[in-house]
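User: I'm preparing a small set of examples for a lab meeting where we compare how different chains pack in three dimensions. I only have the primary sequence for this one, and I'd like the structure in token form so I can line it up with the others. Please keep the answer compact; I'll paste it straight into my notes.
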Amino acid sequence: MLQPSSSSHFFHVCMETVAFALTALTYYHTFLPTPEDCTENEDDENSTPSILSYFKSLTLDAKTSVEEANQRRTASYYEKAREAHDTECIRGVTSSVVVELRREELRHIFRYKRCKPAKSHRTIVAMCDERTQGLFDDARKKILDPLRYSSHLETDGVWIPKENVIPNCDMHVTIALPWWWHTIRDGNENLSKEVASRFRKTLLLEFHYPFQIEFERFVLLGGKVLVALWRCVGERTTEDGTIIFDRHGDGIDPMLRLRAEIVRCFTTSSPDRRRLPLTHAHKMEEKERESDGINSNNEKVPVEELSDGKVNIKRYHTIEKKTPGYSEQGIADGFIHTTLCRLPSNCLSTSDVELGPIHRLCREASATLSGHRMLISTYRFLETTGEGGESNPCVNPIYEEIIDAPRRHNVLPTGKYIEEGIGVVQTSSVPLSEKINLTIGPEAAFWRPDDTPQEQEKNVSINKLFENPNLH
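Assistant: Understood. Below is the structure token output for the 472-residue chain.
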């Protein structure tokens, strides 16, 4: 019997190995999912229900609880973070045009500053405390470190103009935008005083006490804007009666309520017509009525509704459209943010810039700082002409006021009072005659017959709140 040669045996072994490899490869492509399939399945809500799908359907209003508002915010922030990851690379531009594009970018940043006639806009912000400024600045440096950026206009590397990096002292949370960009006219300062006074009355009369916000995550929105996103903190009581302040508070969300009250007080009239709307549209209508000899108190300017024959288009006031996190009912997401930096994506560098490391560092910094809290107790009303660019109204404002939120006081018959803070109660033994209380409360907090005339002048009365600030 002939024995097979060694070469023939080796040939058969090789053929069997190749056949096995082809069978395994066919099985892999036929039965195992590809990375693309995994991505599609992740996005397919029919195959795998989304935990956040319910949260996205929540409708926010002035009575939404802290817990529900934060659920809606979480869903919105998560979607923004996923959308940010869609921008993985910013393409470079040729050296011959990059400098001119950067000059054009600077002209765009300061476009309002260069307006003729001059324009201004008014905003209400809450400044970040020093601890928050330091944490955010350190995180920003780490997140942007892979870019090795420069503010020099002719650099071939990554260029970020210094105006696009918000200084620590100017970091803030935008509360509302009561007056967008409009031409500066006669009586502009008096108008700013009136707007600031309206906001102050809103805080006092609607009892908007100090409240806490809690940092959630950093996101490079659209691959362009680095922001810190916040949620609110509220009070809830456990089964054993313990009071806890966290993101699951069952009280009304303070930021939603504050923004809704600001919008209402600026766009509507009070029932007794003592408070009239204070928007640009209403002011223009008021001037027209005065020129026609019509008393402005006899009319209310409605929000105009137009029709194109098919659908009704409702015109919203600027304060409704521009205030962050506030929009038409059902669309608002309660957005709370602090802008840290803007990347000029159309002229960032002469070479391609990968954003993958930036997104990763955003996630890592978020995991490190998530849960950091800040107290919103003082507001800053600003009128700016665009000296600080697009995201910084704090540079050289032409008008500003610092406005404190009212404190929650409980006045005792003995003259002592209890000041209730956020998660802490402070008791003072100082009599009311020695401690001025500016919060609306018992009559004794406004008018005390035993006070001297000088002390009485320092006290605040209900009538004084409605006095025209321009008369002083």
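A couple of notes for your slides: The CA atoms of residues 9 and 15 lie 10 Å apart. The longest helix spans residues 6-31.

User: Perfect, thanks.
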